[in-house]
Structures are given as C-alpha cells and as structure tokens.
Amino acid sequence: MEQVARQSSRLATWHALREATLRLVAERGFAAVTVDDVAAAAGTSRRTFFNYFPTKAAALFDPEPELAGRLQRLTEEAPVTDDAWADLCWICASFVRWGPPDTLHVYRQVAESGELSDYPVQIHRHLEEALEAWAARRFPGDPLHARQLAATAGAALVAAFRTWDPATPAGEFVRLADRALAAVTVRRAGTEET
Amino acid sequence: MEQVARQSSRLATWHALREATLRLVAERGFAAVTVDDVAAAAGTSRRTFFNYFPTKAAALFDPEPELAGRLQRLTEEAPVTDDAWADLCWICASFVRWGPPDTLHVYRQVAESGELSDYPVQIHRHLEEALEAWAARRFPGDPLHARQLAATAGAALVAAFRTWDPATPAGEFVRLADRALAAVTVRRAGTEET
DNA sequence: GAGTGATTTGCACTCAGTGCAAGGCCCTAG
DNA sequence: CTAGGGCCTTGCACTGAGTGCAAATCACTC
C-alpha cells in the first residue's frame, strides 16, 4: 500500500531519464549522445538507465506510462459502425490531437538526420499495436484484414508526419494526418477469391 | 576495363557473406550468430564483413545487387493509367512474383523470434524507397500523397507477409499480397480542404 | 619487374547491452 | 529501537557491434 512513494519516485526517475534524453538528443543528435551522458544528466547511473529502458532508442520512443491507458480507453470509446475503417480513423484522429508534442520536433530531427533508420517503426509501434489489437478483436477470423487496417492507418500517420513542416505548429501535423486518413479506404475482401 | 574479375570476385564475396548469414541465422537465430561467425563461415575476416555490410542486419536484408536494377525496370515498365494506386499495385504484384524466396522463410523466422524488432522496415525498405521515388515523380506537387501511396502499399505487403503461413508455399504469400492490395484504395485528396 | 590502385586484414578503440552480486533505502514486525 | 525483507541502485566485468587507421596483399598495367 505504501507503494505510492515508491511509485512516484520510480515515475520521477523515468521522467528524468526521458527528459534528459530528449534534451541531449535535441542538442547534439541521437548518435552523439551516449547512455552515460543521459544517465549522468538525469543524476543516475548508467546501469539504472538500463533498468528503465532496454535500449537507448527506447528512452526516446517508449510511451509515457499514462499513454497505454489512454490508448486503451480510446479503443474502448471508439464508435462501432458498419465502417470499420471509419471507426479506426476516429481513433487515430483522436490520438493525434493529444500530445504535448515537444517530442514531435525531436522525432523529426532524428528522422531527418538519418541516424536510427527504423524511426518510423519506433515512433508509432505502440499505437499500431493498440490498433491491431482493436482490429483483431473486431475481425477475429480475418487476421490479414485486421493487420492491414492497423498498418494502413500507421502508414497514413507516418506519411503525414514526414510531410509535416516542423517549422509550423503541431496543428499542421494534425491537418495532414486527417487528410491522409481521409484519402484511404480499406475494404474487407472476402476470404474466398472473386 | 579489367574490372570484370574484380567485380565478380566482389560479387562472390558478397554472396558468400549473405549465404553464410542466411544459413547461420536459419540454424541458430539472429541473436545467436555473431559477425565473427559469419565472416569465418564465409572465409573472410570480420573486418571484411563490414566492408560489405554496414550492419549485421544488412547482411540479411540488403537487396541483392541485381535487385535495384530490376526494381528500377519495374517502375519504368509500370502502366500509367488514371488510377495511380492501381499502377502501384501492378508494380507490387509483379514484385512479389519474383523471388527465389528462401529468404522469405528466414525472414519469417526472424520476425517471429522477436529479435530485431524493426524487421518490417528492414524487409521492405528498398521496395518502399523505390515506390516512393516512383510516386514522387508522378505527384511532384503532393509529397503527402506520394509518401502515402508508397507507405500504404508497403503496409499491405507487410500485413500479407505476417499473415502468410510459412508452412505453405510462397505462392500463398503472393495470393495474400494480391488480396491485401485489392482491398485498399488511395484517393488523392485535394490540397485544399473540402 | 616495378608501380598503381583496390581490397583485405589486424589492431585498438568506443559504446550498447547484460548478468551478477553487493550495497542502500524504506517499510514492517517484533 | 532493532532486525529483517523487498525493492531499487550501483559497480564490475564481460560480450559483441561498429569504426578508424595503417600495414599488407592482391590483380593488373606498363
């Protein structure tokens, strides 16, 4: 029961590490920052860093602790209409309207630098996993369709993200995301051939 | 002019390294194979390995030297109709019909093992880059649309790949890919809002 | 047979990531 | 107040990826 203090101190360390990572990477670029730098800047040891994040990249991209819950709630509140793709778009549209997206700028910077070639996966892995779980629940008999729904939505968001001009406010990114999502339709092809 | 022997020996080394990588990874899994192992198995030194591949993963995923040219040719031969998405699907459908896809099985194995979390990018990075170049040429004024076309096609192929049962012949994968591609439509939303 | 250029290799180094075991901190129970 | 039990932190030592550098080697030319 007295985990509260524990928990909050754990959270505090987590945020200290994340913040240090964001700041240092924004200043110097991903490759030029070592884990030792981050740990020192956050006031912990190198070994502790790896108690919180499995990877240097994870410190940049792992979702904030609250985020999982929020995503969960979003997928529960999502409308359920005939048009699964539209419902999915609702989730995505809600999702991109959240963030305190200081991170967005750092992510773009990392993306453009070409260090960390797999940034697109990193960025939206957790979103896409949540979408896929949602779709899998909805189409338990058609894993191809479920995966494609999630992947297509992810593709739209990444395309929007890459096209977004980081000099403009984050609202611009939201507009691009809406546009991309609206441009696509994913039908459900029957399992049998036509 | 006498580069021929040079070239072919370079090619031979390249293929020796790739083959050794594929074989060892298939046997032991990605994580359990070291670069030293691969280099030794290919009869070269560790340092030479890195002259050919920037990364251990690259030895698994970098496209065969011919592949770039073939992709190039595919994007040139592609039909040019009113429906850009359909043209793109033609490219993708042709592409997945090629392979000597021993690699497909190894890739699946690596994917399932969970080592190498970014396998989806790795697998189709080069395809998606080619598609994006094609789309960018076609829609020079609409980078969002170009990127989304390529990314959506990539998403369909990855979904198909992940759904494919590796116990079945590779032709099954082709069928799934066709189905996924056919299920999607990407329209071009005007730059101005509706 | 010497020279030129590309390729190979060894060496030494940095840094990511991991396992292990010791230490410290906070709380609870006696 | 003290003893003990978890959890968290830390240091240490180790493996392995990836890189820069310089020597050596090879293939071919003149």
UniProtKB/TrEMBL annotation, chains A, B:
One of its GO terms (molecular function) is transcription cis-regulatory region binding. Residues 11-71 form the HTH tetR-type domain. It holds the Pfam family TetR_N. Keywords: DNA-binding, Transcription, Transcription regulation. Residues 34-53 bind DNA. InterPro entries: Homeodomain-like_sf, HTH-type_TetR-like_transc_reg, HTH_TetR. SUPFAM superfamilies: Homeodomain-like. It comes from the Bacteria. The keyword Transcription applies. PANTHER family: HTH-TYPE TRANSCRIPTIONAL REGULATOR RUTR (PTHR30055), MYCOFACTOCIN BIOSYNTHESIS TRANSCRIPTIONAL REGULATOR MFTR-RELATED (PTHR30055:SF238). This is Transcriptional regulator, TetR family.
